[in-house]
Amino acid sequence: MAFLISGRIFGLVCLLVIMGAVAYYIKQSQGGKVPKLRRIPGIDAIDEAIGRAVEMGRPVYCSHGIADLRAATTGPQTLAGLSVLNYVAKRCIEVGADLTVPVRQPEVWPIAADIVETEFKLAGKGDEFNQDKIVFLSNNQFSFSSSYMGMMMRERPGANIMVGAYWAESLQLAETGARIGAMQIAGTAQTSQIPFFLVTTDYCLIGEEIYSAGAYLGNDAELIGSLAGQDIGRILAVILGLLGALVTTFGSNAIITLFRM
Amino acid sequence: MSNALKRIEIPIALTIIATLLQVIPYYLDIAPVKNAADQMQTVVLIIVACATFVGVISILQVHGKKIQRKSEGWEYSIIVVLGTAVMALTGLPLAEFGLGTNNAIFNYIFTNAMTPLGGTMYSIIAFFITSAAFRAFRAKNIESSIVLVAGTIMVMGNAPLFTNALPVLADISLWIREVPNMATMRGVMIGAALGAIALAVRTLMGIERGYLRGGGEE
Description:
heterodimer; A: alpha/beta; Rossmann fold; 2 domains; 10 helices; 58% helix; 12% strand; globular; B: 218 residues; mainly alpha; 8 helices; 76% helix; extended
């Protein structure tokens, strides 16, 4: 068909199959068939981290990464980080924790501020919202990280929650958090930064776990159903991977040709 | 503001339209949709440019209050406010008035302060890697022992001192990087891509509202 772009047809088919599977499981969940969710220790530990910070009389830091919302691969990570911020703000208000949100991207700042402010209003504490706690540091990567590290060294947060897209500053932030004794929960889908988070934080959300966090924390049947749909995509990826390895081993380019359709 | 404009459906609808305008032109060659997507890109750039002022205002508010109240470290806030003001004013795109990226003051601060400070921040990662490695390389259980052994081989495999004496180390480190490491990374990437697709579907269906005010409960 003339309007299909060559080289992207198979990708489109895979995307439609996965989207169809996700939509199907969401519908199933709406009908009451909610799949069982495996526990993710890193997400379960968010409440513990906030509680610990309150007991220690220290603030809670929650960052949604340094990416904007526009990039195809990192934008969704920022969305996932904002979903976590939503939950963290709610919990902090419930237990009276002092929440600080360091922000790098100016266009994400109003969204983060809106999320926290609305949670205060929903809790009937709208007048307690302090806009200065949603602090824009700098849109320069290392100016942001140096400010973030400086704030951590001065205020010594009891919990540091970082979920989103991070680059070279990931180790600087997480290592500073470890140095001041903050309980740290970090997560990213940036494969080059995951090892840094793994060795420096208490809990690390790896790759897709950050996208599940919103559904997991929201405990909403429809959102949980969508996670089951992902499994269809995962099965498809495994089948294609195995088939590709097998077929290529026997000297055929069938799978490669299929991918290039 | 009118109550109609406060409705949660408006940001959800905008998100759905923006998402579809990004996805459809990637797979399908439909001229009107592509034109609309290009137009939207321009609108997004304008919004982002305007949002820059949000950042400047936030900085001035936070540090202005610190200076006013003489809070702890308020002297540093003066440097931040002055730096922001000087860079913002001298960097204005008004070449006919001698402003912009060719302005002497702008260039001087950028070359002699911004660049070396950025370089310094980047270079201290080496020290952070050392302290993180010290914490990670402890054989507490099987998993951390594997990390310890693999890490040691990787370090040795990249040091001529060891590879000259034991050339096989270079081959082993290359194998670790290209086989188990690559397989793991690809697994994580495939999983992350699937997670992003599921997030997109939830967003398109309007059920992922975590990024909206109070999850859309207001």
